[in-house]
Amino acid sequence: MFISPAFAQGADAVATGNPIMQFLPFVFIIVIFYFLLIRPQQKKAKDHQSMVTAVRRGDVVITAGGMIGKVSKVIDDREVLVEIAEGVKVKVLKSTLQDIRSKTEPVDDQPASS
Predict the structure, then answer these.
(1) Which regions of 1-85 does DSSP assign to beta strands (E)?
(2) pTM (predicted TM-score)
(3) Helix (H, G, I), strand (E, B) or coil at 101
(4) In this structure, are residues 82 and 63 in contact, taking their beta carbons and an 8 Å threshold?
(5) Which regions of the chain does DSSP assign to beta strands (E)?
(6) How confident is the model over 58-91, as pLDDT tens digits?
(7) Alpha carbon distance, N-terminus to C-terminus of the chain
(8) Dihedral angle sign, alpha carbons of residues 57, 59, 64, 68
(9) DSSP H helix total and E strand total for the chain
């Protein structure tokens, strides 16, 4: 009654635009999420995994609970024995290690010749 028929017909033409243009904002948001959230998280997980596999006897480590200790023995690929005080050793999962404070040099298998 108050809206002219020509104006009302023009509204339908705008609403039925190109379907690709309607999905473009969603694709853009997914790309932003990938580069700002998913990719850095995957990189951090990969770095943590490589740090955990490289831990060896003598390294000073920090556990997820905040305890600082020295690795006494690498039991297997999942566990290490950490000395947190003199004579106090605890078995810790490698995946719970947060950081390696100081790394030791690898031990030479050959004795030093004099």
Answers:
(1) 60-63, 68-74, 79-85
(2) 0.66
(3) strand
(4) yes
(5) 60-63, 68-74, 79-85, 88-93, 97-102
(6) 999 999 999 999 999 999 999 999 999 999 999 9
(7) 107
(8) positive
(9) 3, 5
Contact assessment for residue 70 and residue 76, using Cβ atoms and an 8 Å cutoff = no
Estimate to the nearest angstrom the gap between the alpha carbon of 69 and the chain centroid: 23
Residue 85: is it exposed, middle or buried by C-beta count within 10 angstroms (0-12/13-18/19+)? exposed
Q: Residue for token digits 């580069």?
A: 35
For residues 69 and 61, the answer to whether their CB atoms sit within 8 Å is: yes
Tokens describing residue 52: 């955990």
pLDDT digits (tens, 9 = 90+) for 12-45: 555 567 888 888 999 999 999 999 999 999 999 9
Predicted pLDDT of residue 21: 86
Q: Which residues of 9-46 are buried (b: 16+ CB within 10 A; e: fewer)?
A: eeeeeeeeeeeeeeeeeeeeeeeeeeeeeeeeeeeeee
Distances from the Cα of 100 to the Cα of 28, 57, 58, 63, 78, angstroms: 38, 12, 11, 9, 16
